[in-house]
Amino acid sequence: MATAQLLHRISLFQSLEPAELEAVERVVVERRYEAGTVLFREGERCAGMFIIIAGRVKIFKISASGREMTIAVEAAPSTVAELPLFDGGNYPASVSAIEDITALYIDKRDFIRVCRQYPDVALKILAAVGRRMRHLILTIESMTFGSLRQRLARLLLETADASPSRETFPLTMTHQELASRLGTVREVVSRNLGRFQVEGLLRIESRRIRILDRAGLEREAETEF
User: Fold this and answer.
1) What is the spatial distance between Cα 214 and Cα 108, in angstroms, rounded to a whole number?
2) I want to staple 146 with a disulfide (CB 3.0 to 4.6 A). Which of 88, 150, 162, 216 is the partner?
3) How far is CA 86 from CA 44, 47, 90, 109, in A?
């Protein structure tokens, strides 16, 4: 697939005009990373933005005590590190490859040159970044409020809703990755998934989850903020 076509699949660039998209296309560089590779770490100077075109990455933070918390898992096609391009700050979180990935990299200086040539590019991309920030705030609320059981139920429902079938979907994260996402430990996640199965809310077979009682799982996920 041509680079322009790949870029147009990314929500960040879908509103760009052909000439604007071509300007972005001219400055991207393809990079490949093996599973486990850290693309950048929290606090490092922002050098550029990554467009994930194959594979999955996780966005995470490390607490002062050394505990890792996964903020989000981004699957292709998606982007990471957009915000520091605009605010001039460092990377606010770390990103690593969950599996082998292919990415298009845009150097910060090249991006700024494109925005000066086509001023509307910055406005259009900022609008998309704003939508992502709203989604991130909802994600943080989901991770912070309610019991672990409620948060796990919400995460399963969100994953189901994002899949082609809203009732059956692959469990792409390990129990440890789920635990990092929810701010707990693997044993607690495994125990609660087991309870959901015993209660007839869902079934796990060959790393696929089938929701048996969506209404029941939705009741578990309800939380008053």
Assistant:
1) 44
2) 150
3) 15, 12, 11, 11
Three-class secondary structure of residue 68 per DSSP: strand
Q: To which H or E segment does residue 194 belong?
A: helix 186-198
- For residue 94, the cross-strand partners are 60
Could you report the per-residue pLDDT of 20-53, keeping only the tens digit for each? 999 999 999 999 999 999 999 999 999 999 999 9
Q: Residues for the chain: how many in total?
A: 225
User: Among all chains, which residue has been given the structure tokens 């635990």?
Assistant: 179
The amino acid at 123: L
pTM, two decimals, is 0.66
* CA separation for the pair 137, 123 (Å, rounded): 21
Instruction: Find out whether 167 and 160 touch, Cβ atoms under 8 Å.
Output: yes
Residues 6+ apart with CB under 8 A from 136: 71, 72
Would you tell me how many other CB atoms lie within 10 Å of the CB of residue 47? 15
Long-range contacts of 166-172 (CB under 8 A, 24+ apart): 166/211, 166/214, 167/210, 167/211, 167/214, 168/208, 168/209, 168/210, 168/211, 169/208, 169/209, 170/207, 170/208, 170/209, 171/204, 171/207, 171/208, 171/209, 172/56, 172/73, 172/75
Cα separation, 143 vs 180, whole angstroms: 10
